[in-house]
Amino acid sequence: MIKSIEIKNYKALKDLTIKGFTSFNLFSGENNVGKTSVLEAICINSFGNPIHNLIQLANIRLTRIDSTSIQDFFSHLDTTQPLHLNTEFDNDTINLKITYNDSTNLVLDNFNALNLNNEFMPNFEKQIHLKFAFQSKKEFFEPFEKILPFNLSIQENKIENVLLPNLQNIIQPDLKLNQIYPNRSTFIPASLNINVLDFLRPLLRDKKEEVIECLKKFDNNIMGIEEIGGVVFLKLKDKKKYRVNMFGLGFIKFMTLACIIINNKIKYIFVDEIENGLHHKNMQVFLKAIMELSQKYQVQIFVTTHNQEFLESALETLQNEVSIFKLFNRDNQIRANRYDYGLSKIMLENNIELRNS
């Protein structure tokens, strides 16, 4: 389980420490206070290959990863300061430092090229790389570094922005990283631009019935589930089969989460704007079912929301299993307050909204 995180110079988060994570962690607050950035920061340093995680999160946000957009990961675009993520787990603390470096070199082969005015057009190559430095408290672990390179061609003040070269080689599984990041995570964006079939397909042979029983908690008319021509169909009590997209975004989100947890390969789940698509009448059913699954498979969940009804439903349904972290901006610095069940309940009883308190 992740217990705490210290974040420095990541996007809107200049210096933020959050402690006291539990089984279900909920980040609230007004717009533009860094809720999604907190979720991303925890995800990056939670599993597998943080370089791959950084790239995947950019892809989820439909950001083209190149030598310009990579600066967006640094607070206020200040690449002179390293990005720090210090994550405390039950049995380890992992410190990840990401440093931005660049250099410009004259390319002699093209130095004698001339432009239309018969003037020299010296070409330069700008090399940019991110250095990932890893440290772990495990006794056998020795600190090491990995490099994420970029190359640019510069001619007459025009820059040709080049994407990452040999990306597949960079994000290949790494034995050292596997030793310090033994668990896996998944990130579900607010837009839910993922295919539920990708998560259902591995379960259709051996865990199909468990998926169906779980879906019945959300809609007891569901009797079966199958894939037909690359599309998920649900069989209802009327014996007809319906495409899953007819059931709405809230149901698809629930089904996606259920499949991820039942597959039992993920230990940390991150969901941005979890309330999107959920009707308020289904929130408690959603939360109870997901919490039961996460406890069965020992999965830790981190979510963001700006919905007061969802906050109230989470408190009523999950009680002591949920920790609420309210993010706010004070003196141009993002900060976080933690509310446990007891304090949150008192605030709600006094009509104090947690999302803006």
From TrEMBL:
Gene3D superfamilies linked to this entry: P-loop containing nucleotide triphosphate hydrolases
Annotated Pfam families: AAA_21
Source organism, top-level taxon: Bacteria
Domain ATPase AAA-type core: 25-311
InterPro entries in the cross-refs: ATPase_AAA_core (IPR003959), Bact_Antivir_Def_Nuclease (IPR051396), P-loop_NTPase (IPR027417)
SUPFAM superfamilies assigned to the protein according to its UniProt record, in alphabetical order: P-loop containing nucleoside triphosphate hydrolases (SSF52540)
Alphabetical list of PANTHER family matching this protein: ATP/GTP PHOSPHATASE, ATP_GTP PHOSPHATASE
Descriptive protein name: ATPase AAA-type core domain-containing protein
Native species: Helicobacter cetorum (strain ATCC BAA-429 / MIT 00-7128)
